[in-house]
Amino acid sequence: MQGLMQRHQLLISSILEHAARHHGEGEVVSRRADASLSRTTYAALAPRARKLADVLYGLGVKPGDRVGTIAMNSDRHLELYYAVSGIGAVCNTINPRLAPDDIAYIVEHAQDGLLFVDPAFLSIVQQVAPKLTGILRAMIVLDDAIPDVTLPATIALHCYETLLADAHEIESWPSFDENTACGLCYTSGTTGRPKGVLYSHRSNLLHAMAMNAADALGVRATDRILAVVPMFHVNAWGLPYIVPMAGAALLMPGRQLDPVSLQDLMNAERATLAVGVPTVWLALYNHLRDTGGKLETLKRIMVGGSAMPRSLIQSYNEMGIAVAQGWGMTESSPVVTLNAPTPSCLKLEGDAQLDRKAAQGRCLFGVDLSAQNDAGQEVPWDGATQGNLVFRGHWIASGYYGTPDSVEDWFPTGDVGVIDAQGFVTLTDRTKDLIKSGGEWISSIAIENIAMAHPEVLEAAAIAMPHPKWGERPLLIVVPRPGTAPAPEVLREFFRGKLPDWSIPDKVILAETIPHGATGKVLKTELRRQYAGS
């Protein structure tokens, strides 16, 4: 016997229609390239998205077609999110920080017929366009005028606002199977060619609903949320769906992600929650520390992408700002765990409380995880036994776009970590970044967290270096704070009593910078190349 309940497909278009109908005054604030602010509301954005659907139809887009974007966070990019998926096509968000060759590969692999581009990235498109003449039909500049740009004759050039001005709203969004693909995001390609993760309407909507739970982001209509994480990075961690679903204000910083611009935008627009990777919060904290600046309304930060140092969490806590770490990856839409307290956490004090806050958190409903040994057996949830982390659930990928391989059950993450009795996950390393010395595993993350607590260290990265006796030994690369020059041996002594002596780096090297990849993560492959033989 089945229940007598209505059945409606879980479609992305329903989020925007809900926001426009029930939270019409909710704001979307975008910083343009000239630093001016553009303001709109969900009530105004929804009809523009329906006009954009008409534009897409006119440009020959059919259900299942892939439409590329190379753009930062803005209301126009948000309109694309909803219009492309709303008509049953697939929005392929491309990271402009990737190498041009990888960008060309993604457009070709996805078979993007159209490409919507921020003016700032036109030079990239001009560089790769000659390789795409048999694939790309048109490029649309996300502006109100067409700048001077030269493209192959087979690729038409359009102005976004001109197309919208001549369009008519579609009467309603089409309905189709909720398992239809809606978004395509490629991995950063640090270990080979980028791989495409193909999201469905159902997976993205369920992810957004789970993230709006009280023990996840718990977004309220009165929140004002700064999306520092870019919309080309795993759907901005779901914020383009999460925030309108709750009717909260969405603040879009555009390309201005420097500490001064972020502080100004947060204070001017009364941000209550901000979301981004640790490197952003490190740079912002150093700016506030050096200038005596304040974040006047910010109450919460969600961080992901890599582990946030304990010392940085503590520094923001001392400013009255709560930090919640999350964990996931492109293949998990991305959030699997988020750090929210359980009753046992309320009893913790001091270092024990900070250790718990530094964990990557516990599972959202809708996904499950496990830490397994090399034989695929689950290791104890004792907070000490390391295992290979795997997960499964409603918004976990079953394979990569355009490849025959599939994952029927647990998806391997490439991360290593421990799970405690309360289900809290703590990452100990990426599999490829663990340091195996004399048969013992050393966590590069543990070394980096301790180094970052030193008052003269701005940034730190630990890598494995070959050793004739022990196989591998840790090398620590440190960027000193401006105006300081810590002695390497002093930094090594800072580890005494905090790690076993055999885990302390053999050598500390001072550097001007540490390389970062397209999503803000430290490029340890590049560090290993740079410091080979050190």
What is shown here, in short?
With 534 residues, this protein is an alpha/beta fold.
Verbal overview:
27% of the residues lie in helices and 25% in strands. The chain has 534 residues and is an alpha/beta fold. It has three domains: 13-27 and 37-202, Rossmann fold; 258-432, ANL, N-terminal domain (Rossmann fold); 434-530, 2-Layer Sandwich (GMP Synthetase, Chain A, domain 3). The strands form five sheets. Strands 2-1-11-10-12-13-14-15-16 form a nine-stranded mixed sheet, sandwiched between helices. Strand 10 (224-227), helix 8 and strand 11 form a beta-alpha-beta unit. The model has no long low-confidence stretch (mean pLDDT 94).
Outline the secondary-structure elements.
Layout: H1 13-22, E1 27-31, E2 37-41, H2 42-58, E3 66-70, H3 75-86, E4 90-93, H4 100-110, E5 112-117, H5 122-128, E6 138-141, E7 156-159, H6 160-165, E8 181-186, E9 196-200, H7 201-211, E10 224-227, H8 239-246, E11 249-252, H9 259-268, E12 273-276, H10 278-291, E13 300-303, H11 310-318, E14 322-328, E15 335-338, H12 350-357, E16 362-363, E17 367-372, E18 387-393, E19 411-419, E20 425-430, E21 435-437, E22 440-442, H13 444-452, E23 457-467, E24 471-480, H14 488-493, E25 507-510, H15 524-530
Parallel strand pairs: 1-11, 3-4, 3-5, 4-8, 5-6, 6-7, 10-11, 10-12, 12-13, 13-14, 24-25
Antiparallel strand pairs: 1-2, 8-9, 14-15, 15-16, 17-18, 18-19, 19-20, 21-22, 23-24
Helix pairs in contact: 1-2, 1-8, 2-3, 4-5, 7-8, 9-10
